[in-house]
Amino acid sequence: MNSISPEQPSPSTTLPASAGAVSDASAERVGEGETTIKDGVIAKVASLAVREVEGVHALGSVPTRALGAILDAVTSTDVNPGVSIELDDDGVTVQIVLVAGYPVPLTDLAGQVRSSVTRAIEGLVGMPVSAVNVTITDIYVAEEQVDNGVD
Q: Which partner for 65 in 48, 60, 95, 123 could form a disulfide, CB atoms 3.0-4.6 Å apart?
């Protein structure tokens, strides 16, 4: 039976005692480099923030949602129907198109959407939001079940 013992590391693989310690010079270099956040990511952050607001039934108008569903089925492109962004020197301007649930007060809903989108973009993306424009294109009324007396 042969016995195999692990090889001892050579002296050239020995690390100095200060290895792993963070020096002041390396702490100053943290954060160097460039970060690029694509427009689609910002739109997705806005879309997710809108969906968290109670009273929002859907994003986009009926034709926009239908087109988005077709594009999702045909391509692997991430579509955020009802959300578009514009970048300028002042920050991000967000355009939101949505369908509200009934009987949500519409001006309150728009204010909550603005607040949620602004917090999400400024907090997650780190960019200032100059405006969030909300367009409500429809109101969703849930169909109530009709009791026709048949059991």
A: 60
Residue ranges per domain, the chain? 43-140
Cα 101 off chain centre by: 22
Our CA angle for 69, 75, 76, nearest 5°, is 100
Sign of CA dihedral 109, 113, 116, 118: negative
Peptide bond into 103 cis (omega under 30): yes
**CA dihedral sign, ordered 107, 109, 112, 113:** negative
Q: Is the pTM of this model over 0.70?
A: no
How many Å separate Cα 130 from the centre of its chain? 18
Residues 50 and 98: beta-carbon distance below 8 Å: yes
Q: What is the residue-averaged pLDDT of the chain?
A: 80
Q: At what angle do helices 106-120 and 39-51 cross, to 10 degrees?
A: 140
CATH of the domain spanning 43-140, picked from 3.80.30.20, 3.40.50.2000, 3.40.50.150, 3.30.70.1350:
3.30.70.1350
Q: Average pLDDT of 33-55? A: 94
